[in-house]
Amino acid sequence: MTLKNLPADARPREKLLARGAATLSDAELLAIILRTGTAGRSVLHMADELLATFGGLAGLLQADAAQLAAFKGLGGSAKRAELLAVMELARRALSAQLAAGDALSQPEAVRRYLQARLAALPYEVFAVLFLDAKNRLLACEEVSRGSVTGADVSAREVARLALVHGAAAIVLAHNHPSGDVQPSAMDVTLTRQIKAALALLDVEVHDHFIVAPGQALSMVEAGLMP
After folding, report:
1. What topology does CATH give the domain 121-218?
2. CATH class of 7-92
């Protein structure tokens, strides 16, 4: 079923133009991109199923072409390409926001960016945001990728990348696939080790975020930063 077959007051595109994008649900916004459903399944039902399959928008942002192709109704390359393009634009918009201003003055933007990149991953990833002297984002690098039980991170590698990017400061981040954002003793120890290594290079470690779907903990705000 296409959007045109829906009653006028239920068509997401018309609702968006009449009331604004903020009034639409995630599924309605996604339905506008998808445009058509499949036999026996409306485009809104398809959008709902897509979000449920990938764990919401955060999970969908992490999906690749192969994962989308496995979803019924996205076998065609055109629809997959459109979704991947929109998701990449969303990630780039979040990155551009941090690159344009002081990352420390907009902690919610940092949280949104990290959640878009890491929160829905089924395995643990340790990433580093490299900042210039004005705390603008220079780059975000994945330093280590592990299983759901942990990732092997090298303080030396973080220091090397800080030099490569000419960073004046960094923000550490990793996800907890378990959904629990409370830092472990190992998280605190690793943060201390990286902070000591970066101090030798006069590079400051501003914070360490732990993210999971729908939440992110700042070790600074929690009073856990060494």
Report:
1. Cytidine Deaminase; domain 2 (3.40.140)
2. mainly alpha
The tokens for 186 are 């190992």
Alpha carbons 166 and 168: distance in angstroms, whole number = 7
List the structure tokens of 70.
């496995």
Return the sign of the alpha-carbon dihedral for residues 135, 136, 138, 139. positive
**Contact of 134 with 169, CB cutoff 8 Å:** no
CA-CA distance, 171 to 128, in Å (whole number)? Answer: 6
Burial class (CB in 10 A: 0-12, 13-18, 19+), 1: middle
Note the pLDDT of residue 105: 67
**At residue 86, what is the residue type?**
V
Q: How far apart are CA 164 and CA 136, in angstroms?
A: 16
pLDDT digits (tens, 9 = 90+) for 182-205: 998 889 999 999 999 999 999 999
- Domain regions of the chain by residue span: 7-92, 121-218
The contacts of residue 75 (CB under 8 Å, 6+ apart) are 69
Report which of 191, 213, 183, 190 is spatially closest to residue 122, judged by C-alpha positions: 213
Question: Interior CA angle at 103 toward 215 and 127, to 5°?
Answer: 60
